[in-house]
Amino acid sequence: MADSSGPSIMEKELPSVLISGIGGTSGVLESHVEFLKKHFNLITMKEFQKSKELHEKIKSVFVFERLPVIDQELLESLPNLKVIGNSGVGVNHLNLKLIGSFGVKVTNTPHAVSDSTADIGMALMLASARRLVEGCYLATSPDTTHFAVNWLGVEVSRATLGIIGMGNIGYKVAKRAKAFDMKILYHNRNQRKEEEEQEVGATYCKNIDDLLRQSDFVMLVVNLTSETHNLIGKRELELMKPTATLINICRGAVVDQDALVEALQNKIIKAVALDVTYPEPLPRDHLLLQMKNVIITPHIGTATDQALHMMTEEAVENILAVLNDLPIPSEVISK
Ligand SMILES: O=CC(=O)O
Fold first, then answer.
1. Which of 9, 18, 112, 304 meets the CB 3.0–4.6 Å disulfide criterion with 61?
2. ipTM rounded to 2 decimals
3. Which domain holds residue 76?
4. Taking every annotated instance into account, which residue ranges of this chain make up the domain D-isomer specific 2-hydroxyacid dehydrogenase NAD-binding (predicted)?
5. Max Cα separation, the chain?
6. What is the pLDDT of the chain when averaged over all its residues?
7. Does residue 301 have its Cβ closer than 6 Å to ligand 1?
């Protein structure tokens, strides 16, 4: 009778995957390690640096919170690397050209992040419209003489929301905004299918300027690329209504931050709500941190238990697909 306690000859070795570390501020979440270990032989950066023998074994790198850094040196030291599995949708921290030149694929997790990031977009829009942060300060201030009539907010219901970038997240924002009876405009490289537009009641603006001119709230949900870097600058801010609010939930560098400060100082737009800035975090003396009509959160679009869990699952699915020569659910194609 075969001994079932030891490893069977038929059992396949799990593929070796490099991770930055486990736990802390620069490692994979401890709560995800068990799941990852079911699929991979995990190798931490520390182990990798100690043993040259491990280099040849590594087939994939699991990138979490932009770590480990994928540079030329690392790529050269991994002769059998097949795929970088990024946990998260944004891949602006990865040099796609360089990685591609090593014949290595890149994958991301556009589905796992969409609900939590859309929620943050709505939360920021509502918080700014109803001056929630100011309200919290007032509620806890020793001054009890404040009256709500002195700091009125605005309603998002029936207001016009312009969504720039109608991918998975933008579309989820539109779904939510529909439930708030908002009028929805969107700009995207490609127009969505008619039935998709109808489902959320969104109108396509081929010209971004038209969207900027008409919107009460403008929400940025694009990938950061060379084309979207500084997409919103002085000219675009000047096209917006003086009563409009800008919300950014994608990447800080999509907005020219100096132009944004100037626009707020000169009342070119009314308010701003940012989950992303550059750098992150902003220096403590940055002007944006001193303005009442600015809300800033520390890049928490995907900071929920559920999103992080789903991101890990989606990343694992992608990595396994590449390693097993199966159709890849979410491959990032460098343009
Ligand atoms: O910022 C979050 C992401 O890229 O998923």
1. 18
2. 0.95
3. 16-112+304-332
4. 122-301
5. 84
6. 95
7. yes
